[in-house]
Design goal:
Blueprint: E1 2-3, E2 12-15, E3 18-28, E4 36-43, E5 49-55, E6 59-62, E7 66-76, E8 79-84, E9 90-94, H1 95-98, E10 110-116, E11 119-124, E12 128-136, E13 149-154, E14 159-163, E15 171-175, E16 181-184
Antiparallel strand pairs: 1-6, 2-3, 2-6, 3-4, 4-5, 7-8, 7-10, 8-9, 10-11, 12-13, 12-15, 13-14, 15-16
């Protein structure tokens, strides 16, 4: 059991015999009443999201989730396949289970498979990934003084705002929490 104030983004909890992952956390302090915590939760199996409000002292059952190092292999229709780097076992996940992580996955990229007992429930990507720019417009000389940005489509399909000096084929470090450009990568 964990206190509701410890239920930060990414934590998986059991609520009403269902598995939920915390998407957003908001602490609300009332003027005269006690503080409350509003959680935005994603049903891990069903895929829908709900919002629940709890008293500040409420307890939640934390789900025992095991993390296994895997490598993204390929996508076939609606299924994405991940290979355990130790046992070479293939695990298929549907689009709902992969979720937002799909934007940051390229063939051969390392990530963690989230397992609840023997059931795969999702994928967790590193805090930052390196992606190659698949398409972007060329920057115009002289526009760099304003700090302007342009859009670049990455190899995974993600669209990111980047500085004007970035070209097609450049490797960029992208934050997976915000989806923003961080820096050039070598």
């Amino acid at each position: 059991m964990i206190n509701v104030t410890d239920a930060r983004k990414g934590v998986t909890v059991e609520l009403d015999n269902e598995l939920y992952q915390v998407l957003d956390y908001e602490h609300i302090k009332m003027a005269r009443g006690s503080a409350t915590v509003r959680l935005k939760l994603k049903d891990v199996r069903g895929g829908h999201t709900i919002e629940k409000t709890f008293q500040n002292n409420a307890k939640l059952a934390r789900a025992r989730v095991e993390r296994i190092k895997v490598e993204y292999s390929y996508k076939d229709g609606e299924l994405s396949y991940f290979m355990n780097t130790e046992t070479y076992d293939q695990t298929p996940l549907n689009e709902n289970q992969v979720g937002e992580a799909a934007k940051y996955l390229t063939e051969g990229s390392q990530c963690e498979l989230l397992m609840y007992g023997a059931e795969p429930i999702g994928v967790e990507v590193p805090a930052a990934v390196v992606l190659t720019v698949a398409d972007t417009e060329p920057g115009v000389k002289g526009d760099t003084a304003t700090g302007a940005t342009k859009q670049a489509k990455m190899e995974s399909g993600l669209v990111v705002n980047v500085p004007l000096f970035i070209n097609t084929g450049d490797k960029l470090k992208i934050s997976t929490t915000t989806g923003e450009y961080l820096e050039r990568a070598n």
